[in-house]
Amino acid sequence: MAQTPITTLFLDIGGVLLTNGWDTELRKKTAAHFNLDYEEIYHRHHVTYDTYEEGKMSLDEYLWQIIFYQKRDFTPDDVKKYILEEAKPHQDMIDLVTRLKAVYGLRVAVVSNEGREVAEDRIERFNLKNFVDFFIVSAFVHFRKPDLDIYRLAIDVAQVKPQQVAYIEDRPLLCEVASRLGINSVLNRNATETREKLAKFGLVL
Fold it and tell me: Is the distance from CB of 6 to CB of 165 less than 8 angstroms?
């Protein structure tokens, strides 16, 4: 068990609570669905996406730069609808977090890299406000993981010590970065394994 009791959970959204919002797989599916050249999208995306995810560009502006810089036979709204409706919940993880919050009185925060429109839709669509106390999302705060400042901001807002936090994340690099601040990082592969890892910090169900 951890020497310092865990009082707070930090959660990623994509890969933890929900499917990823706009990853390589979804970009490929979107390109195929709309008969687009994926390689062209790939290169334009990598030049542009950080700016969008940091909240410095709207989704319409981002889509213009990667897709609608030339005339298409479909609209930006068609693409946005397709992207947003591809999201699916990891219900077993949502159930796990909800139970832990109820049993241990934990505060729950999202610490996530997402564009504003995608994040707002997912928060609303999947009722994340029902169990998340606050949202530190890159587009809202203008920092992106792995920038340590996004974790520092989450710690400051939660008013906790890093050792009081368990951070559930699906990417090993981001777990390593958060651990540098003393945050207890839990690499999520599936709900069963994550539940076992959290038990080692005293969060036993």
Answer: yes
Does residue 3 sit within a domain? no
Direct distance between the N- and C-terminal alpha carbons of the chain, in angstroms, rounded to an integer: 14
Within the chain, where are the H helices? Answer: 24-33, 38-53, 59-66, 76-85, 91-104, 116-125, 138-141, 148-158, 172-179, 191-199
Partners of 167 in the beta sheet? 10, 185
Residues 179-189: pLDDT tens digits?
999 999 999 99
What is the model's pTM? 0.93
How many distinct structural domains can be found in the chain?
A: 2
Compute the distance between CA of residue 189 and CA of residue 57 in angstroms, rounded to an integer: 32
Give the bridge partners for 8, in sequence order: 107, 165
